[in-house]
Each structure stands twice: as structure tokens, then as C-alpha cells.
Amino acid sequence: MFHTRDFDITEKLDYFAAGASVLYGLYYTPIRIFRLDQRKPPVKAALLRLWTLVCILLYAAHVLYLTLWRWDYTYNMAANVAVGVVQNILWSSFSVKRYRRLKKPWAAWPGMIVAWIVMAMSLELLDFAPVKGLLDAHSLWHLGTVGPTIWWYNFLVKDAQQDIAGERLKA
Fold first, then answer.
1. 134 contacts: CB under 8 Å, gap ≥ 6
2. Sorting pLDDT into bands at 50, 70 and 90, what band is 62?
3. How remote is the C-alpha of 50 from its chain's centroid?
4. How far apart are CA 22 and CA 20, in angstroms?
5. Spatial distance between the Cα atoms of 107 and 136, rounded to a whole number of angstroms
6. Which are the contacts of 101, defined by CB distance < 8 A and separation ≥ 6?
7. Which of 14, 85, 91, 169 has the most CB atoms lying inside 10 A of its own CB?
8. Distance CA 147, CA 119 (A)
């Protein structure tokens, strides 16, 4: 049922928004994992500006290619999957290291969320015809992303609380 009432512009905006969401996930990942948000050492601020510029340019190039050169579903899917795989690898390794250091169950959540998203993504990649004309792989993919979104938010809260507690101890 998804996209049955799409117009050319709504379809493009949907794909661009999805791409922006996936790329923002990758943008945030090294900022958090490598703490590019911290001011010390000063090189982190320069790296953050450079990373921001790289991500903006990559997104602009992606949109311009799809808009001005060729609307290509295969390229768009491959680009989003490639970006997703990179952030999944980063979050999984972060999760393992963080769990080993903190020994707290929530520290392992990013790795578990990645596993869930990979399973849900298989619905998008291994498409199948709608069951009874209603339930298709794309709709199940959307359904499969609800749980991890809530779980991810809870991880971010716990991670921020841990970060704030660490800052208080240093002060």
C-alpha cells in the first residue's frame, strides 16, 4: 500500500528524505563514537567541520545525480545500503567496546539494534509481492523500524546520562 498515491515529486522527496535520514545517521555516528563534539584537543573541532562539509557535499552530490543526471533506484538503494553498512559496523564495534568497559546491558544495545535493523532491512532488499494485495515487504520494513527507533532513543538517553555522570565526576 505504500507509495500507491505517490506523485513524481512526492516519490522523489520520499527518497531524498530517506537518504538524508540514513546519511544523518552516519554523520552522527563518528561524532558520538570519536567524541568530535568535544572541544579538546582543538583538532576535534576542525575534524567536525571537515566531516560536516563532507556529509553535506555527499548528500548534495547524491541528490543532484538523481535529479539532474539519472533517476536510478538501484543506485539510490546501493548508496543508502553502503552508508548504512558503514554506520552499522561503527555502532557494532562501539557497542562491543563500550559493553566490555562498562559491563552495563544498555551499552550493548546499539549492536542489538543494528542486528534488528539488518533483519528488517532484508525485507526491503528481498522484496516480495503483496499478500492479498495489501501487505508487502516495504510495509513490513516500515513496521520493523518502529521498535528499534524507540529502543535507540532509550539508548541515547542512557548514553547521555552516563556521559553527564562522567563529566560530573571530573568536575
1. 1
2. very high
3. 20
4. 6
5. 34
6. 107
7. 91
8. 12
Distance, in Å, from the CA atom of 28 to the CA atom of 74, rounded to the nearest integer, reads 25
* DSSP conformation class of 129: P
Q: Which residues contact 108 (CB under 8 A, 6 or more apart)?
A: 95, 96, 98, 99
Instruction: Enumerate the β-bridge partners of residue 74.
Output: none
Take residue 57 and report the three cell numbers written for it. Answer: 557535499
Cell output for 79: 548508496
Place of cell 563529566: 167
- Cell matching residue 26: 552516519
CA–CA dist 27, 58 (Å, integer): 11
| Claim: this prediction has a pTM higher than 0.90 | no
In the chain, the amino acid numbered 108 is A
Joined together, the cell numbers standing for residue 136 give: 508487502
